[in-house]
Every structure is written in C-alpha cells, then in structure tokens.
Amino acid sequence: MSLDKNDLIIMPFSARAALVYHILVKRGKTILAFFDNNRQLDGSRYSDCQIILPEKIERKTQNVTIILCEPKYYIQMNNQLKHLGFVNTVFSENVITSKEAFDCFPLISISETRQLIPKQISKMKTQIRDSSNFLGTACILHFDDIFIPIIDIKLSEDCQLKCAYCAFLQELLGYAMKYKNDTKITDFFEWFDSYHLSNSATKDAESELFCLLTKGDIKDVILFIGQDIIGGSTYFLDRKLKKLLHKRVLIIRYKTRTNNYLLHYRHRENEFFFSFNTFSSIKNIISIFKIMTIYINALSGYPGIYSILTFLIKMNNEFGINYVFYLHDYYSICPSGALLDYDNSYCRLPSPEKCNECLVKNNNSWYLEYESIERWRVNWFSFLATCNQIIVFSDSSKKILSKVYPDLKKNIITKPHKVDYVTPVIKRKKNTNIINIGIIGTITLHKGSEIIKEMLSLIQEKSLPISITVFGIIHNIFSSSSLKVTGYYHTSFLPSLIENYGIDIILIPSICPETFSYTTQEAIALELPVAVFDIGAQAEKVSVYKEGLVIKDINAENALKDIISFIGEQS
Questions:
Q1: Phi first, then psi: what are they for 241, rounded to 5°?
Q2: What is the mean pLDDT of residues 194-208?
Q3: pLDDT tens-digit profile of 104-155?
Q4: How many Cβ atoms sit within 10 Å of the Cβ of residue 226?
Q5: 132 domain-assigned
Q6: What b-and-e string marks burial along 131-143, b requiring 16 or more CB atoms within 10 Å of the CB?
Q7: Among residues 196, 18, 33, which one has the least CA distance to residue 101?
Q8: CA 337-343-346 angle, 5° bins
Q9: How many domains is the chain partitioned into structurally?
Q10: d(CA 92, CA 191)
C-alpha cells in the first residue's frame, strides 16, 4: 500500500513496530515518532525517533498517517486516535509485505543453522518472557530448506528485540509458508494450510512430529479450545499450560485477524503450529491424536456458533468425546457475555421477552446472528448437557448459570482459581489527608471505565481530596489532574507499585457480575482494603473479607461516599 503523507507515526512502540520502522526507513520514508500510552516510555528514543504519548502531539502535525502495529489493540488505538483528532490510520499488515520482512533477515542453510544455535536461546526466552515491553519467544523459522535462527538477526544488539523480531516474523510468515513433503505425513498436511516450527532444538522437533504422525506414538494428548485475546480466560489457560510442560498438549484458537484457526502442539521443548480454515477440521485432529476429552476454555468470538455447538454434540454422539467446559463469562447465557443490557447496566436476567427487546438495541452483544434468546439458550443447553463437567469459579456463577439452566446443576462444579503469586504490601503510616484509590487491570466499559470517569468529575466538581491511580490501562481515554495511569505492569511488581503510590484502598469498579475476578483476589492478597459493587464473584469474595467494602448501588457518587466513610472509620 502506498503512503501519501510525508510524515508517519507508528503506534505502539513494540518489536513489531520496530520492524515496521526499519522497513519503512529502508524505503526512504520519514518516521516522525512512535506513539505509546506507556508513560514510562514517554520521552525515550528508539534509533532516531522519539517515543511520546499520543495526547502530546502538536495540532499542526495531525495530518500525518499513523500505522497501527498491534492487531489485538487495533480497536482501542483507533478509538483513542479518533478522539484526539487523528483520522489517517492504517494497519501494519497493509503497509509492509512478507517479502520485505523476510528480506530483513539473512538466510542460512540447515547445516549451518544447526552449528550456530547457541545454548543461550533458553536464556533469551526467559528474558523476552519477563520483559514488560516486548512480547515473543525465541524461535527457528523453517521455510523449504532454509532456517532463520534468532542469532542472525542484525537489526538490534538487544537480545530481547532479537527474540521479539523473530516472533513477529514467525507470525507474519506463518500463513504464507507452505511446508509439504511428499515422502512423509502427506495425509496429515493436505488439510492444513501452513506449518512451521518454533523450537530451539529443530532436529528433535522434526523427529517428534514424524514419530507422532507415522508411528502412532500419540497417547494421552490433551486438547484445549481457547481464545486469541488477552483476558482472564487466556490468563487461566496460560497458567494451566505451565503445569503441563511435560504433557503433550494441543491448543486450538480462532484467529479473528486472519479468519482461520490455529492449532498449537506443545511437548517439552517442541512446538508446532498449524492453521486450518474450518472448525469441523477438529474431527481430523480427534482421529489423528486419539482425543477422548476436550477442555473448552472459551468459545466467545468464534464465528457460526450454532454450527460449532451442533458439531460438538455430534462428536459426542459419534465418538463419545467427553467435554469439560470452563465458565469464564456468561456467553452461554446471552450474546452479551458480560450480561450488560442496552443501557450498560447489569440486566439481572429478566424474562426472555425483555431479553429479546434488549438485544435488538444492545451494543454489548458479542454475536449478532443469535435470532432470539430462546434459540440461543436451546442451542447452548443442548451442548452444555453433553458436558461431563461444567467448571465454575465462584458460587455466584453457579447460581447465575443454574437460574437459566436448572437441569445442569448436577454437572456444575465450583473450583475457584488459586492466586498465590501476590505478596502483601508493607503498610506505611499515612501522612496526608488525600485518599489514594487504586484500580487494577485493563479497564473497559464493563470493567467500570465510565464509573471512573464519573468519579473524577465529582472529585473535581466537589474538590474532594481523592486521587485515583490505575495500575494498567483505560480503554476510553480521558485526562484529569486526579488520575494517574501507570500502563501495563508485571504482577510480581504490583505490591511495590501499590506501596510507591501510597494506595489506601483498591476499588474493583466492574459493573457486571464477574465469574471469578483475578483482580479482586489479587487485591485481597495485597491485604489492603478492597471495595466492590454488590454483584457477582467480586462481591462474594469481598463480603467475607475483613477489610472489604461492598457498595450496594452501582454508581460513582455512592462509590465515593462509601469509600470516604470507610477510610474515615479506619483512621
């Protein structure tokens, strides 16, 4: 795609963005700056470009083109930029080509690669995994008879960037690469679109794959179906997978950006990725890997949900497949998976007639082809009834699900998540009359962004001695002298961040019933006062916490009034 503007801005600053930068500079383009919402990066430089907060850009330069480089944040970034007056945006995959990305890296033969792969790859993996600004994994790319090892990436001396560059390249080229060998495992690959390896010991990985698909040594393979988005369900699955490193595991995810499915095979150090186009191809996977149990971590976001549910029921009838279903949201109850009505309030499960009236004008719906709430629930009940176990993470979720599907009670099992990775804060003597409210996580509409906005307006209007700090990000960007936003953080740093900002109380501003609420449990583990609205799993936890505050009415004014009173009583 040709870019007509003289000046370009890349957003956000990341490994993907850095690669786009190098390609465009090679074309002779002028890059004005990087945009990034991480305030800790504001004012830093990468190569000849400054990294700045989007709201700091001068009005006279707002006719530039902004290249968005992180697909999972496209909607959020686009909305933010429109709010700030930027209208010219383009996605990175429409700007650079696979060949340009490929040409940024030298090519080495298989024999040379095997001699060059260093032992420090595992160290690089750890560094990239622990980095808050660069995400990715060390990998080897296979393209016909050519390997691209991470040690040959020359664009940066920073090993974190080397890993991340390669991770981006792997993603970019994964769908363009065709790996087919007519003498081996042809039957398996003919229904897949692409295949590539991600491994620090490529020879072992190829041997394992060949053994798996030709010798039938494929017992005890565990299959998960999950999401390709950031959130509690993905976090849960990632933690679960860490405990299964020595097991053979398959993970299937629907990729919204490419409109196809990714199959990720993992066993010890070996990883394979395959893509395929139709959900029904899972039947081949079930047959090849002799799957008897499928763990369904999430189905929200998958297209053609009625067809998928019907297919899963058919697999149960034909092959006796067992299902374990994890309830991370209420998508199985309503297309508005957070149970928010058209007025952005918790619906409290009204009659089907009211539901149908609501859904017609509900912008919170995650699926538009539902037809009616009756058909939605008939299809979901038919599938859920085939599940051997329906795992919920709070008694609140069990009550909500049982209210809609009373016949499922016998299959519902409550297993709260373990949050054992947060340490208590060191409490210091308060030497100011300002109440510091802390908010944890990514704050979207259903997580309470409008509540925070209204609280800030009231704080300013009434000159209240209150400060709000968000440890994470807010999707609807707004500014206030009483608001601080730290950006993304690693959970291990949360206690020290809370201490440094002098937080007096944690507010969980969710306006929908949470199925578990990691942030609530993390806040309790910090051993600070915690406030929540009186709904869902968050209220279930905080109501029995000795320093808990349950706010009865879901609005900003009551939240401020109750928090002020609660902190006053503790002083």
A1: -65, -30
A2: 42
A3: 544 333 333 333 333 333 333 333 333 322 222 223 333 333 333 332 333 3
A4: 24
A5: yes
A6: bebbbbbbbbbbe
A7: 18
A8: 50
A9: 4
A10: 29
With CA atoms as reference, report the closest residue to 80 among 555, 438, 455, 485: 485
Q: What is the identity of the amino acid at 312?
A: L
Give, as one character, the DSSP assignment of residue 225. E
Residue 129 is encoded by which pair of tokens?
Answer: 């995994």
Least confident of 99-113, 151-165, 385-399: 151-165
Residues 386 and 403 in one domain: yes
Neighbours of 340 (CB within 10 A): 23
Residue numbers of the domain that contains 115 = 98-177
Residue 363 and residue 387 share a domain: yes
The reply to whether 198 falls in a domain is no
Q: Which region holds residue 296: left if phi is over 0, alpha if psi is between -120 and 50, else beta? A: beta
C-alpha span between 403 and 401 (Å, rounded) = 5
Higher pLDDT, 485 or 427: 485
Distance of CA 265 to the CA centre of its chain: 20
Q: Which residues contact 220 (CB under 8 A, 6 or more apart)?
A: 247, 248
Facing residues of 438 across strands?
Answer: 469, 506
Residue 222, domain member (yes or no): no
In sequence order, what are the beta bridge partners of 142?
147
Give the 3-state secondary structure of 338-381: CCECCCCCECCCCCHHHHHHHHHCCCCCCCCCCCCHHHHHHHHH
Structure tokens at 354: 């009211």
The answer to whether residues 154 and 111 belong to one domain is: yes
Q: What pLDDT does residue 61 have?
A: 57
- Identify the CA nearest to 526 among candidates 557, 504, 511, 544: 504
Residue 517 within a domain: yes
- CATH number, domain of 85, equals 3.40.50.720
